[in-house]
Amino acid sequence: MSSTTGVHALVRRTHEERVLAALRTHGALSRGELAKRVGLSRTTLSEITAHLLQRGAIIVADTDAATRAGSGRPAERLALDPDSGQFLGVDFGHRRVHVAVADASHDVIAQGVERYDDDTAWPDRIAIAFELIDRLSRETGVHFGALQAVGIGVPGPYTAARTGVPAVSWKRQLAPDGVDRAFAERFGAPVIVDNNTRLAALAEAITRPDAVDNLVYLRLSDGVGGGLVVSGRLVTGSRGFAGELGHVTAHPKGLPCRCGKRGCLETVASVPAILQACRDAGADTETLDDLAVAVAKGDPAVDAVLRDVGSMIGGVLGAAAMTLNPREVVIGGEIVHVAPVIVEQAAATLRYELYSIPSDQPHIVRAAQLRDSDGALGAIAAIFHQSPLLAGYPDPTASARPASQQRSAL
After folding, report:
1. Mean pLDDT for the chain?
2. How far apart are CA 259 and CA 223, in angstroms?
3. Which among 311, 343, 354, 385 has most CB atoms closer than 10 A?
4. CB of 293 within 8 A of CB of 340?
5. Do residues 156 and 194 lie in contact, with contact meaning Cβ atoms separated by under 8 Å?
6. Using one digit for the tens of pLDDT, what is the confidence trace for 49-100?
7. Is 366 helix (H, G, I), strand (E, B) or coil?
8. Domains, the chain, ranges and CATH?
9. In the prediction, which pLDDT does 271 show?
10. DSSP letters of 158-227?
11. What's the DSSP call for residue 300?
12. CB-based burial label for 110 (10 Å; 0-12, 13-18, 19+)
């Protein structure tokens, strides 16, 4: 793309955002009213609105015939299309895929989740994601003819979206090769791929009124992963491994891990591992709902397991915090809301680990504000490219295909 073309595209996107922001704030407006509110000439505004109408981002809502003075021709009033999915966020976990869809105003208008087995092959995972997207379209009426970009989170390290090198796969771990290609071909839109927990860390950092400059994020789910925000930057590392706290050894003589080592934090703090440990202690905990019941009843065996897990989490986070000196440490995943004692024990252990660091602002250890949708929402945030945390992050719109090559998926 030439520099002239690139500048023109950037200017057009800026104009589009101003038009969409005006419609989001004021509702349906005529082109004349829009021109006054956004400060664009009639000619420029006509070009911008024509493109937005063609993409399906906006619609002709009605005319001003009812309020118009005089006998002139009624003017069309434009509005955001409430059913147009503009941005798609997909979070592939070890045992489930979560999808979130945002409209032109960046509001989430549809989301859903579908589960699969841990050993499900990637082509099947992708097919399950497509089926989920189809179902969301049928149930909510959302359409994807104007989809601008897709953000995808995958488990484990991933560097292809940033450097062009193949994805790194671990021993016994399925590599997400081709996931970007599959979505690009299906939707005819640019795709960006990164580690799903890193994207969850991004979502967690920017949900605050002011973005967190230094944060360590740990997510407990079907697997255990982490994300790092250092000096206002979302960190990836040289080969995409930054933040892989789930594969720090927590129990040297523990169980084998999917990465090929033994006793990684994931083997004790993932949701399946915690549920199994509670069962080994005599509790009936097949699901998180079962665990919630046991916690509510004050089962002492379950409490002991959860506190032991929290201590090991705190030890791993303590090493990370001692190295990075973050402002906040956040623990995410649905289980921390079911069993808050995990966070409480991790915080107590972390305070002990960091006792030697003088500070008038003690580290804040908290449960994540977001729930299981954090990775998908983080993927959408990466598409928006609006956070200073994403400085140096690839802009997916730069790889957009010509309109002639785009096609509707649904």
Report:
1. 82
2. 11
3. 343
4. no
5. no
6. 998 888 788 888 888 665 665 566 778 888 888 888 889 999 998 889 999 9
7. strand
8. 3-80 (1.10.10.10), 87-199+391-405 (3.30.420.40), 208-367 (3.30.420.40)
9. 95
10. --HHHHSPPPP--TT----TTHHHHHHHHH-S-EEEEEHHHHHHHHHHHTSSS--SSEEEEEESSSEEEE
11. H
12. buried
DSSP class per residue in 13-75: HHHHHHHHHHHHHH-SEEHHHHHHHHT--HHHHHHHHHHHHHHTSEEEEEESTTT--SSSPPP
Residue 20: half-sphere exposure toward Cβ, Cα within 13 Å: 22
Q: To which H or E segment does residue 228 belong?
A: strand 224-230
CA 335 to chain centre: 18
Bigger pLDDT: 273 vs 384: 273
CA angle 118, 188, 77 (to 5 degrees): 120
Phi, psi of 360 (to 5 degrees): -90, 0
CB atoms within 10 A of CB 101: 26
Question: What gap in Å lies between CA 108 and CA 242, rounded to an integer?
Answer: 29
The whole-angstrom separation of Cα 347 and Cα 176 is 34
User: What pLDDT band is residue 273 in, cutting at 50, 70 and 90?
Assistant: very high
* Share in percent of the chain as helix, strand, coil (round to 5): 45, 20, 40
Cα(64)–Cα(83) distance, rounded to whole angstroms? Answer: 23
Residue type, 181: R
- Burial class, 18, CB count within 10 angstroms (exposed 0-12 / middle 13-18 / buried 19+): middle
pTM: 0.73
> What angle is formed at CA 283 by the lines to CA 278 and CA 286, rounded to 5 degrees?
75
**pLDDT for 403:** 35
- Residue 331, pLDDT > 90, answer yes
Contact in structure between 215 and 225 (CB atoms under 8 Å): no
Residues in the chain: 410
Cα distances (angstroms) measured from residue 347 to each of 311, 341, 362? 9, 10, 11
